[in-house]
Amino acid sequence: MRALLKNFLHDQDGAVTVDFVVLTAAIVGISILIGGVLIDSTSTAAESQGRSLADRPVGTNW
Prior knowledge:
Layout: H1 2-10, H2 15-54
């Protein structure tokens, strides 16, 4: 029983899987944060452009 416990504690087979899961979760989390920032700034720029275009008269030469 003691040898089985010792082998279990020193086994490294699952370590790569745990590392992969943690890194993938970190990448997904960072992507969500970056996406939120980009959506906010993009919508602000789009609203500004929309207001600018709405104020221009249609059919006149500049």
